[in-house]
Amino acid sequence: MITRIALTLTLLLATASPAAAECFADYKAKQEGGSLKLHYGIAELPDRACGSKRDAADALGPRLAAGGWTLLNVVSIFGPDGLAQRKDSAGQFFLRY
Asked: For this UniProt entry, which residues form the secretion signal (predicted)?
């Protein structure tokens, strides 16, 4: 019985997928309606959107649109190590969308 449990646990650990690395994008967006508003922001991306700027834009565009913003471009995709240096520049749009 204990051997069976140990074998099961070993197999589960061996086949478990590794934790996905976090990825983020910095982007520029606009909002129109009276006067033009622009913002620079940082957003966390789902794993499927970390491969390219196009994938990031596809994931981020609808999130921004729901808040009344239009995505202009994805500046870059980066890991958690790039958050601190961009936080002040993003201001209120740091991890907002």
From this structure: 1-21
